[in-house]
Amino acid sequence: MKRRKVLILCIDAGSHDYLAASDLPTLQELAESGFYRHANAVIPSVTNVNNVSIATGTFPETHGITTNYHVDRATGKGEFIEDDRFLLAPTLFQTAKASKFADKTALFVTKKKLLRMLASGTDIAVAAEDPPDEYIQMAGPVEPIYSAEINWWLLRAVRETLRLEDPELVYCSTTDWVQHKYAPDAEHSQQHLVMLDAIIGDIVNEDPEREIYITADHGMLAKTVALDPGRVLTERGIPASSIPIIKDRYVAHHGNLGGAAYVFLKNRDEIPEAIRQLLDTSGVEEAYNTEEAAQIFRLHPERIGDIFVLADETTVFGELETAVEPTNVRSHGSRHESYVPIIGYNSPWAATDFEYNLDVGRLFLESLR
Ligand SMILES: [Zn+2]
């Protein structure tokens, strides 16, 4: 019997507007012989949350990763989520191994933190920012984390691993520095995707029967206003703080400004009034208490603060010196960046089976049962 082999590629911030603005013959060919589906990302539309959703085939209510930065409600202490201590669901790799689908599984990411979060069940696990020596031999010298080249390096490493070891299940996720810096029609952005497309072309040509899924974790849009929801409330007499969900150590990407935030109140009795005040604030589009947010967005209720706020299309939330200030960044996190494409090639499922990016993982898991 022929072995089934699956490659899942998450192009970080690889939304439709980026793909459509570049000449990508391989992706076009995959879409034409398979499908191209407009689907949803998980909200908050940030990298950790969506990669973990895809790589576990579940929503955050199940896998528990709701943010890049976790605040302990009891102690008020915050920490970056950079390993799998908060992960509550098995990875695709673990299930693929346990079900005997795969002899060999592989994970390729740019950042070490995502590697530590998702590496359970992998035989091969490579982070482009700090790869094992043999991968430097295979794919070239290490590239800076703030570059397009690091994603090209990553795809080359995938290509070489498929040639040499041919794992049955591969998950690869790039990084979105290019999209944070450049709009879809910018030359840098087009070059970035054209090169990725060419390497994907090699991968397809060398094994045209492999099942391939290409999707994204979120989109990316230009922002002009920065708002601190905690400061807005505090200035109106409701002591509060807020954590931009995008907050991580890679500040050159986005300055820790993103389109979604968790708000923590000093006094929880003030939640209804705080929601009214936030909804009355220019730039805030949606605000929900914990129970509502957990239900609507399928988030883990113990990990989303007292209020979940989403920004409008041109606003980002941050921890600021003033309540509102002008800004000039490209970022994500809100509902407006929660639309992503899914390309399926050699897929046993129909395009309409995919509503969310994480359905790539979910359907794969179901097929193992
Ligand atoms: Zn991302």
From the N-terminal CA to the C-terminal CA, the straight-line distance is: 18 Å
Secondary-structure-based class equals alpha/beta
**Care to count the β-strands?**
16
**What is the radius of gyration?**
20 Å
Oligomer: single chain
DSSP helix fraction: 25-40%
Which second-level CATH architecture of the largest domain applies?
3-Layer(aba) Sandwich
Q: CATH superfamily name of the largest domain?
A: Alkaline Phosphatase, subunit A
Lateral strand order in the biggest sheet: 2-16-8-1-7-5-6
The best one-word shape is: globular
The CATH top-level class label of the largest domain:
Alpha Beta
Contiguous helical run count: 15
Query: Which stretches of 5+ consecutive residues score pLDDT under 50?
Result: none
